[in-house]
Fold Uma2 family endonuclease.
Amino acid sequence: MIAAKDNAPHLTPDDYFAWEATQLEKHEYIDGKVYAMSGGSVNHGRIAIRFTAMFDSHLENTGCITGNSDVKVNIFGSNNYTYPDASVTCDDRDKTTTQYITYPCLIVEVLSASTEAYDRGGKFRMYRQNPALIDYLLVSSTSIEIDLYHKNDAGDWLIINYKAGDTIELKSINLNFPIEQVYRGLTLTLETPTDIIRE
């Protein structure tokens, strides 16, 4: 999704939940400030749906929860909340909360020109504080390219770059799939300046 800074005043976490329930748009909440989430491209949406459908089917009857872009993730150890494009949690603690999850093992962000730097930088720095997170997937919506940030058994983050012809391996949920499965039937074009929503 594409975040645009809102002009709302600083809110407490409780105020944020109460305020957002009255809004037409979703809002991320970072350090007391809210950021409106505007829509991405058609390809962005179709790719995100493919991930959630694939994860949900693969994880059927496992007890894991697949989240789409409507499911908040609480940044571990903080009162910050984001809306990734897809997420998976297999942690029983997330079955006791109704407004968000806190312990995802897998997070997917579909990249947009206006958010790519944030998704790779500041957002990843927040996400990787979570000891439960194993795989962070950054997915291009303009070319057949996916970058996987994978935490190995030693706790080190490795970056794996996938391109056309490759098979993606998500150890967090024991899933392998050809990269083309995500991009089937899509016409991929670069975003033009008029497609980009600036903060």
Notes: The two ends are 13 Å apart (CA to CA). Residues 193-199 have pLDDT under 50 and may be disordered. Residues 41-70+84-191 form a domain with the tt1808, chain A fold (CATH 3.90.1570.10). The first helix runs from residue 13 to 20.
